[in-house]
Amino acid sequence: MADPRIRVQADSFDYGREVAGFGTGRRDVGAVVTFLGVVRDDAGTLDRMEIEHYPGMTEKALAAIVAEATARWALVDALVIHRHGTLRPGEAIMMVATAARHRAAAFEAAEFLMDYLKSRAPFWKKEFGPGGADWVAAKTEDEAALDRW
Question: Partners of 15 in the beta sheet?
């Protein structure tokens, strides 16, 4: 059975609707933290990004990290949405939402999940621009961010 807290999809999602529905009606939540990741075009030359993943393996890995965050910070709820396929600059690529009794736990768990998604989640990204295509390599600062956890 699929974990409802994990969605890996090609289709875009409505961030506002996702945020509005997350944690609604819960009386045991004191803090909700959300984050939206967007395809960035630093040089102004990115045509598109293509994201690949291995279905089944990706969802299993994300479910394990969400379970770890939930246990570590006593989260009431969590949500991870990550897209795959072809994405253009400015499009939403992923979102994280955490709900906890207290804000520190919600913020820390969200950062932990974002750091994991950036550096360890099993997604492969290729950027396409005027010079052709290049795989996106891991960055030292992303690994360092994950090391703090």
Answer: none
